Design the sequence.
């Protein structure tokens, strides 16, 4: 195995690469989650075999900011994608038991979770590719995936890389 393969998403992370990917967790714990803006979140979930709390940093690929209407604020959605498909431990864990908490910026909140359909996932990918073309190309390349711009390709990716929406409800007053 080459050093290049050690720092690739084509296989489950291990060694120094795994430590690097977990760097956001202590930063969020220390109150420095704001450094990541709305780009990353930490998912707190229960291990399906151990019952232990797990903390998984995830990249946010779509985000709807809150809107104020008078004194009311709307809910906020964060959409994440499972790079390892349905086999990812965090994904399997929240299928077995809903997410306990999500950390964004300096906020910790209990989410409503929703697994996106293939159609919804394809729509999110379409927007992501339009807004972040170079990043999307690099990410897909690191996963050993490709996208040729077709609708079929979007649907294939949405099937292979399922998405979850975490919704934060407005703070109750």
Sequence:
């Amino acid at each position: 195995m080459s050093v290049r393969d050690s720092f690739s998403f084509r296989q489950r992370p291990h060694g120094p690469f795994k430590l690097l990917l977990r760097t956001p967790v202590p930063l969020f714990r220390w109150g420095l989650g704001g450094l990541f803006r709305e780009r990353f979140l930490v998912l707190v979930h229960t291990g399906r075999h151990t019952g232990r709390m797990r903390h998984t940093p995830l990249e946010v690929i779509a985000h709807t900011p809150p809107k104020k209407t008078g004194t009311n604020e709307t809910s906020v959605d964060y959409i994440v994608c499972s790079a390892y498909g349905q086999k990812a431990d965090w994904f399997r864990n929240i299928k077995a038991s809903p997410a306990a908490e999500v950390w964004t910026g300096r906020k910790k909140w209990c989410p409503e979770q929703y697994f996106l359909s293939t159609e919804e996932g394809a729509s999110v990918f379409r927007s992501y590719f339009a807004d972040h073309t170079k990043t999307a190309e690099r990410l897909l390349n690191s996963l050993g995936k490709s996208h040729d711009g077709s609708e079929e390709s979007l649907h294939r990716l949405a099937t292979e890389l399922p998405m979850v929406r975490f919704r934060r409800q407005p703070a109750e007053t």
